[in-house]
Amino acid sequence: MKIVVCIKQVPDTKGGVKFNPDGTLDRTAMLAIMNPDDKAGLEAALRIKDEIGAEVTVLTMGIPKAEDVLREALAMGADNAILVTDRVLGGADTWATSTTIAGALRNLDYDLIITGRQAIDGDTAQVGPQIAEHLGLPVVSYAEDIKLDGDSVVVKRQFEDRYHELKVQMPCLITALSELNEPRYMTPGGIWDAFDKDITIWGRNDLKDVDDADLGLKGSPTKIAKASDKVRKGAGEKVNLDAKESVEYLVGKLKEKHII
Amino acid sequence: MDFTLDKKHEMARNLFKEFAETEVKPLAQEVDETEVFPRETVTKMQKYGFMGIPVPKEYGGQGCDPLTYVMCVEELSKVCATTGVIVSAHTSLCIDPIMTFGTPEQKEKYVRPLATGEKLGAFALTEPGAGTDAQGAQTKAVLDGDEWVLNGSKCFITNGKEADVYIVIAVTSVTEDKRGRKKKNFSAFIVDKDAPGFSFGTKEKKMGIRGSSTYELIFEDCRIPKENLLGAEGKGFSIAMHTLDGGRIGIAAQALGIAEGALERCIEYTKERKQFGRSIAQQQNTQFKLADMAARVEAAKLLVYKAAQAKATQKRYSLEAAKAKLFAAETAMAVTTEVVQLFGGYGYIREYDVERMMRDAKITEIYEGTSEVQRMVIAGNLLA
C-alpha cells in the first residue's frame, strides 16, 4: 500500500508573525513547525504502516527551508520525502498551491492521499479538497478516525452537530483533524537516519499537466489587500449594577441589537 | 573550529526539549515530593529510544554519537535531574562497559535488551568503607566450579532496586608487592537481578534526586555463571575507572542541565518580580548576576560538549571528562544557589522548582567521583 501525506511548514505561533511588503507571510524570518493537522495525518499514515505495512511518502511545497519538516517526517518514520520548490511557485494562493501539488502527485503511485484539514497560517481548509478535485478523486474531509476495510477506507467525519461515517473506495483523499490522534515523537536514531536520506527536489518542470497561468502569485486569483497582526479587542463596557438592574440592562442591550 | 551544532543535533535537541517539557516537567515536583521512581516516564523513554542513544543499531540502540546522548541527559535534567540520572547511570555505567569490554555473547545477551530499554541497568562499585579509596572494598568473588560466588554489599547504587542488570566490581585476589604491601585485585561481573543470593538492603533517603532509586545491594553466596565475568580477571579496577570516565560526562551533562534550567527560570522570574516599582531584572545587581551565570553556564557547556566529542574520537578521555564534570558540577551548585537567592523567600519554598534544583545540584559534586577526585585526575595529568 502506498500513502502520500501532504504536509506544510507553518509559522510557529509561539514566535512572532512577519509579513512581506506584498502582504504575504515572510516565511524565512519566522520559526517554523509542521502544521498540526498535517502531523496528525502523517501519524495516521504511520499507524497504517505499523499495522499492515505501507510505504509512506511526504510531500511539501515551499521554500528550501521547508526541507526541515520533511526531515522531521522522515525521523518520525516516513519512507520518502519530496520537496516541490521553485521561485515561479512563490506567493501561491490555495488554487495555485493545489494545482502545483496535484501536478506533483500525478508523478506518483498512491492508494491514499492524506492532507491536514487546514494550515494554521492560512486557515482556509481548501487545498486538500482542491487537490482531490484536480485529480478526480473522492474526498472525505475533517477525518477524526480512519480505518482500513479491504480496498476502502472507513472515515469518521466531524460534522457540525454529529459525525458521518463514510466508506470510500481507494484511491481517495482524506483531510485529517489534529484530534485524529496524538502524533508520535521522533526517535534519536530516526533523526540520524533522516539526515542520511536524500530528499527528492522537484521544480516547475517536474509538475505534470499544469498550466503556467495557474501557478505562483500570477496564477492566484486571491489578491491580498492587506494583512496584519490580530488587533486586540478593547476591554468592553463595564457596568456595576444589582441583579434586577443587570437583567433590565442586558435585555435592553439585546433588544437594541435586535437579538431579541 | 566550529561551535555551532549541525542540523541533525539541533533536531535531536528539539526532540529532547519537547519530550522533557511535555512528558517530564509536569511530574518533576511530584517525583521529588513522593520519592517515587518515575517508571511511567522510563517506559515512554523506552518507546522513543532514549535508553540506548549511543549504542550501535546492531545491538538495538539508536546509533547516535555521545553528544546526542549528552544533550538528552542535559535536556531531561533541565526539568528533572532524577530523570537525567536514570538515563545516565543506565547508559554510561551499565551499557557502556558491556559494549567496551563484553564478549560478543555478553553484548547480544545484555546490551540488546538494555539498549531497547526493555531492561534497566545499574553499576555497583561503592561500598560503605570504600568510596574514593577503592582499596577499602570488601565484596569478594570466588570461582567455584562453573560459578562465581559473590559475598559482600554495595551502597548508594543508582537505579538500585529498579534495575534488571548490574555491573558489580568485586575483589578476586589479593597480591603482595615487593615491599610486602597487600593489594586487592578487582574483577567486574554482570549480575542479573534474579541471581540467587542477591537482595536489596535499605532505600536511601536523599537530599536531592529523590525519585532516583538508591539502594544497598547485598550479596550472600550469590551465584552467577562463570561467563558473566566482564573483561579479564583482575582488570576490574581499570574497567571501573574507564566506565566512570564515561559516566562523568553523563553527570556533567546532568549538572549542566540543572544549571541551565535554573537560569531559565531565573530570567523569567526576575522579569516578572517587581520591587521598588520596577522588575528586579531592571536592577543592575540582578543583571550582573545573570550575566555571570550565563557566562559560566556557557563555559560549562563547551567543556561538556568537548568531553562528549572526545569520547567519540579518542581512546582515552579521562582528562576531558574530569574537567567537564568538575566545572559543570560546581557551576550547577553555584548557579542554583544564586538563583534561590534571587528568588528570595520564594526560592526557599518547595512550590518553586529552584529549591529542588539546588538540592539536586549538590550530588553532582559528589557522585561518580567527587570534585576533589576530579582535581586529582586533572592535576595528576598536569604533573605527569
From TrEMBL, chain A:
Domain Electron transfer flavoprotein alpha/beta-subunit N-terminal, first and last residues per copy: 22-210
InterPro entries documented for this protein: ETF_a/b_N, ETF_b, ETF_beta_N, Rossmann-like_a/b/a_fold
GO MF term set: electron transfer activity
SMART domains: ETF
The protein, known as: Electron transfer flavoprotein small subunit
Originating species: Lachnobacterium bovis
From TrEMBL, chain B:
Transmembrane segments: none
Residues covered by the Acyl-CoA dehydrogenase/oxidase N-terminal domain: 7-118
InterPro entries tied to this protein: Acyl-CoA_DH_CS, Acyl-CoA_Oxase/DH_mid-dom, Acyl-CoA_Oxase/DH_mid-dom_sf, AcylCo_DH-like_C, AcylCo_DH/oxidase_C, AcylCoA_DH/ox_N, AcylCoA_DH/ox_N_sf, AcylCoA_DH/oxidase_NM_dom_sf
Pfam family, one: Acyl-CoA_dh_M
Domain Acyl-CoA dehydrogenase/oxidase C-terminal as annotated: residue spans: 234-382
Keywords assigned: FAD, Flavoprotein, Oxidoreductase
Domain Acyl-CoA oxidase/dehydrogenase middle: 122-222
Molecular-function annotations in GO: acyl-CoA dehydrogenase activity; flavin adenine dinucleotide binding
UniProt keyword Metal-binding, yes or no: no
Annotated coiled-coil segments of the chain: none
Family listed: Belongs to the acyl-CoA dehydrogenase family.
UniProt name for this protein: Butyryl-CoA dehydrogenase
Organism whose genome encodes this protein: Lachnobacterium bovis
